[in-house]
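Posted in: Structural Biology > Protein-Ligand Complexes

Title: Requesting predicted complex, pyridoxal-5'-phosphate in pocket

I'd be grateful if someone could produce the C-alpha cells for the following input. Sequence and ligand are given below.
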Amino acid sequence: MKVIYLDNNATTKVDDSVFEEIRPYFTELYGNPSSMHYFGGQVQKKVDEARQRVASLIGAHPDEIIFTSCGTESDNAAISSALQVFPNRRHVITTRVEHPAVLTFCRGLSKHGYRVSELNVDNNGCLDMDELRNVIDENTAIVSVMYANNETGVIFPVEEVGRIVKEKGAFFHTDAVQAVGKIPMNMADSTIDMLSLSGHKLHAPKGIGVLYVRKGVPFRPFMVGGHQEKSRRAGTENTASIIALGKACEIAGQYLDDENVRVRAMRDRLERELLRIIPSSRINGGGAERLPNTVSIAFEFVEGELILLYLSEFGICASSGSACTSGSLEPSHVLRAMGVPFTCAHGSIRFSLSRFTTDDEIDTVIRELPGIIRRGREMSPFGRELLNS
Ligand code: PLP
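-- Reply #1 --
Done. Output follows.
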C-alpha cells in the first residue's frame, strides 16, 4: 500500500539530495573536525559551509549558530543560559501551548524557587499580549514563546513579544522548530535573542538541532566539556547530520515560495472541502494566522484514534489531538488551553503537508475521510444522533 504521509510536523522524509550529500561523511570522510590534520580539516570546511547555509536561511551570521543534538536541547539550553546569566532574576514566562521541550523544563523550574508564568491563548490559539505586559517585570530572566504551534500551526507575533521583553531587559527565546523552513525569517532585523530549530522537521535527519544566539547576547553553555562550537556546546560534532542540516536549509530556502503558494493551496483545498462535506467539523485555530502546511480539524462526536486507525487502512498517516496521560487519552494541552470543547478535541486530527505532498494524495483524503467519519460516528450514541438528524 502506498503511504500518504501527512504527518510532517511529527517528522519529515530526508530529502534524497541531503542523503547523497552526507554519504561520504560516513564512509570516507570520517575525520574529526577538531583534528589538526588535513583529513579532519576537510570535514571542518564542510561544517563551516553548513553553518553558513543554516545562518543564511534565517538571516543570521554564521557565528550566531550553535549546533546541538535536537530542538529539545536547544530549548533547554536557551532557558538554562538565561537563568545563569541573570542569577538574581527568578521569573520565567512561557505559554500554555508550548511544546513539552519548553513547558516541562519551565515547570521543573518552579520546584527550584522560580516563579513561572504561563500565558493564556484565546479560542483561536492567539496569545494574550495584555497578560504578557501585565506579568513581565524587572525580575523576569527570560520569555520563551514559540514561533508557531506544532498542533494547530498558529503563528505568534514574536516580534511584538520581543519588543515588550526588551523594555524589561529580559532575554527573548523562541522555539521556531515548526516555523523554520516554512515561513521566511530574518534575524538581522528581529527582536529575537535566541531561536531553536530542529533538522528532522525540514527534511534533514533526526538528532540534529541549532540554537541561534544573537551576537552580543551573553551565553552560558548547557553541555560542558571540550571546546567545540566555540565552547558553547561541548561534544564531538555530529558532522554528517550537521552537513545534512546545512544542505536541507539551503533547499528549504529555495522552496520557501513553493511552501507558501503550492503547499498552502493544497492545505486550503483540503480544509475547505472537508468542512464542506463533513457536518459538525471545524478548524482549530481557523481564525488565526497559521503555517501554510498545517491544519488541525475537529470532527464532533468521533474518536480521533479511531479516525487514525481507519485512515491507516488507506495508508494515510496523520496525528490526533490527544495525548496519552497516565494510561488514558486526554485532549492535548494545546486544544484544552484553546477551550476546544471535549467532544471536538477528542475528534481532532492534524494533517501536516510538505513539499513532497501531491494533489492526488489530498484527493484521496477528501474522498475517503467522509466515510471514515461516518463509520466512527456510528460507534457513539451522540454520533448516531448527529447522523440521523
Ligand atoms: N518544539 C516543537 C514546537 C516541536 O514540534 C518539537 C518536536 O516535535 C520540538 C520542539 C522538539 O524537537 P526535537 O524532536 O528535535 O527534540
